[in-house]
Structure formats: structure tokens, C-alpha cells
Amino acid sequence: MTIYSLRPQPNAAVPKTAMVMAAGLGKRMRPLTVTRPKPLIDVAGKPLIDHVFDRLSAAGVRRAVVNVHYLADQLEAHLRARVKGIDLQISDERARLMETGGGLVQAREMLGDDPFLCVNSDNLWVDGPSDAIRLLAAQWDDAKMDALLLLVPLARATCHRGQGDFRLDPFGRITERRKPGRLAPFVFTGIQILSPRVIRDWPEGPFSTNLFWNRALDAGRLWGAVHQGLWFDVGSPRAIRETEVALAEL
After folding, report:
1. Sign, CA torsion 198/187/190/137
2. Residue 26: count of CB within 10 angstroms of its CB
3. For residue 206, which of 42, 102, 143, 153 is within the disulfide window of CB 3.0 to 4.6 Å?
4. What region holds the Nucleotidyl transferase domain (predicted)?
């Protein structure tokens, strides 16, 4: 049996800073996103972004940089009223949506010089035997990694309609991306640890984090940790219903 594992680092500390990606347009979630940004859509009794901040707080994250664009005033007001115990900073993309890679570039000075968490704001997951964020932290090795992605097996990617994203070697190193017309066994959950050194030599304007991932992959410095709990791809109104039914059965 193939085992995908990394050697946990003793006494590993969770990154104190997180980048929360919250600037997207939420087109797949329409019509619910006509009047509110996707991170404020309720799932299982509270907005998606509240689920994320609850996880960040539980893991010990102290600072969060959140990028905003679509219905930014509404989202920023919610965050300033809701977020307690975490220093909140807003990376303002009201003038121009920068996508994921461009969002990291724009927020670079706020993120500091240490490895940081990067979490999609429309994420919803249930921890397995260990806290997913602490699992990432325990497996982070700055000497050999530029990015460590939390992955879930395609067969356990609830509500996910894609065909997978990555392949891993037995030690957890990501060896390739999904090829056209093929399946890949692991799906990116939207949760990762990044080293600030990946944010370099960027193009002008909006671009995807894929640019940074591909460089890390080519250098052998892109790694994956396999999530042991549940993960939900809450990308559409239909997925909300499926997610809530699944959570109610826990």
C-alpha cells in the first residue's frame, strides 16, 4: 500500500499569520451572491468565512490579512464586527481584482518574513484525528519546502465536481499536476503554508498562484499533506444543501 506521509516536526509552531482569500466574485454561487459576497453565505448556521476564522482561532493564529473586492464594504464591516482575538488587516482590492497570485503580491508587505497560512474563505472542513492546520504546521520543513498544500483524496472530496489536481510520491512530494483527460488522486483543499520566498518575479496585473506552485514543483519544493478528516467544496447552492445534510449526520 502506498503511504503518503511526511515526518512531523517536533514542537512545530502554527504560523502566526494567515492570508484569507476573500475577494472572489462568487459567480458559481449565484443567485445567492447577487446581494452578498460569497464568504458571507450561510452554511450550517453561519457564514463561510466565520467557519474559517473559528479554525484559525482554534489553531492559534494571531494575525489575518483578508483581501476584499466584491461587495467589499459589506464583508469588511462583518469582519470588523465578528473577528475577535485575531489582529485583522484588510488588503484592499476594490479598484481591481488581483486573483490569487496577484492578491498575495498586493498583501506581501502585510504578511511578514515568516512562513504563513493561506486559506480560501469559502472553505469548510471537519478535522480528523488532528487539527488540519496543526497537521500542516507539524509537516512543514522550511529547508525543503516553498509550499505545503493540504490535499484530500479525490474520492473523499465532498461536493467536488473536478477531476483532481495533483499526484504525490510516497514521501509527500508533489510530483505532477493533473494531465488533460486524466484523473489525479488528490484535490487541493484551499489550505496551505507558503514561504514568502515564493512571492517573487511576478507579472504585472492579476494572475493565479499557479505561477508560484509551478516554480516550486519544478524545483522539487512543492509538497502535500493529506487531510484525514472531511472537506466540502461549497461552490454552489446545491453544494450548500449537500454539505448541510452531511454535517447533520455527524
Report:
1. negative
2. 21
3. 102
4. 18-246
Phi, psi of 27 (to 5 degrees): -65, -35
Q: What is the dihedral of CA 59, 85, 47, 120, to 10 degrees?
A: -50
* C-alpha grid cell, residue 134: 496543526
Q: What does the pLDDT read at residue 235?
A: 87
- pLDDT (average), residues 51-57: 96
Q: What share of the chain is helix, strand, coil (3-state, %, to 5)?
A: 30, 25, 40
Percent of the chain with pLDDT strictly greater than 90: 86
Q: Are 15 and 61 in contact (CB under 8 A)?
A: yes
pLDDT at 219 over 90: yes
Confidence of residue 1 (pLDDT cuts 50, 70, 90): very low
Q: Taking the CB of residue 122, how many other CB atoms lie within 10 A of it?
A: 26
Q: How far is CA 85 from the centre of its chain?
A: 21
Task: Give the position of cell 479525490.
Answer: 154
* pLDDT over 60 (residue 4): no
pTM summary value: 0.93
What stretches of 59-185 adopt beta strand conformation (E)? 63-68, 87-92, 116-120, 123-126, 147-153, 157-158, 166-168, 174-177
Listed by start position, the domains of the chain span 17-249
CATH number of 17-249: 3.90.550.10
DSSP string of 180-210? TTS--SEEEEEEEEE-GGGS-SPPSS---TH
- pLDDT (0 to 100) of residue 5: 54
Looking only at the bridges linking them, the beta strands covering 116-120 and 186-194 are antiparallel
Percent of the chain with pLDDT over 70: 96
Bridging pattern class, strands 42-43 and 17-21? unpaired
